Amino acid sequence: MKEIKTIAQFSSIINSSLDIDDVLSNSMLLIEELMEAEVCSIFELDKEKNELFFRLARYDPHGNIKKIRIKMGEGIAGSVASTGEMIVISDTKKDGRFNSMVDDITGFQTKSIVAVPIKNKGRILGVIQVLNCKRVASLDENMREVLFIVAGQVGIAMENAKLYGRLKENFVLTKAELKETQAKLLRTERLAAMGQLSHAVAHEVRNPVMAIGGFARRLKKMLPSDQLSGKYVDVILQETARLGKMVVEVERYTSLPEPELKQVNLSDLLKNAVHGWRKNQQEVATEVKIKSMSGNPEIYVDKELMKEALIRVLSNAQESMDQKGVITISTWWEGKWIIISLRDHGIGIVKEDIPRVFEPFYTSKMQGAGMGLSFVSQIVAGHGGEVKISSTRGVGTEVRISFPATRSDSSDLI
Question: How many CB atoms lie within 10 A of CB 28?
Answer without folding.
Answer: 22
